[in-house]
């Protein structure tokens, strides 16, 4: 088990808010404990690139989670623009295919950590089947992970349930970020289907975990982060 400050740098807080007051309230409350904030399609659509500047100006880092999924030329230009904002991490869908992933890696030029999303943690086997994917979840995640690695992507966003298998396939090198985190007696899983606890995620090989609503929907976000850190350091 690593010590508290180190965990603090490995918990990414998802800021999926539409009101600036909520964004400010959440960041003000959690900034003593959180170093990386995740800006996804919600906050980016509402506030635009200025939200990235604001977080960087507070001395924090930004994980820009726009999950690019388009033709290689479009993704390449979007990645070039995103890395010019100084983001630390950036996501794209591995289902976009090898050429798209390679174009993104080339456009990035090693500036941000490029992370491939395999299968969203909100998808369970039934939904994946309805899409028409006939491989089971672990097999499909493994295939997409190898594809991303071969295309030069730095790491993956993956469910805690596939982590150990991914480490077996890919080894220690790729950065793995795990969303779909829930804590005991916390808020319900909601739309997240393949959830794990913070402790289980780190034990299984996560470099970072992403937590959103268990903290942002709490009446006391700072207390919620501290409780998560406590579960890690006490080994609960
Ligand atoms: O609120 P919650 O803790 O469920 O937030 C999880 C965050 O991680 C959301 O911002 C969601 O977009 C993101 N995410 C995810 N599953 C992925 C990739 C990202 O839930 N595979």
Folded structure, characterized:
- This protein has 236 residues and is α/β, with parallel strands linked by helices.
- An eight-stranded parallel barrel has the order 1-2-3-4-5-6-7-8, surrounded by five helices.
- The chain starts with a helix and ends with a helix.
- The chain contains twelve helices and eight strands.
- Residues 1-5 have low confidence and may be disordered.
- The protein has a single domain (5-234), classed as Alpha-Beta Barrel (TIM Barrel).
- Helix 5 (72-84) packs parallel to helix 6 and helix 8 (137-150) packs parallel to helix 9.
- The structure holds cytidine-5'-monophosphate.
- Cytidine-5'-monophosphate (C5P) is lined by residues 14, 16, 38, 40, 65, 117, 120-121, 157, 179-181, 192, 210-214.
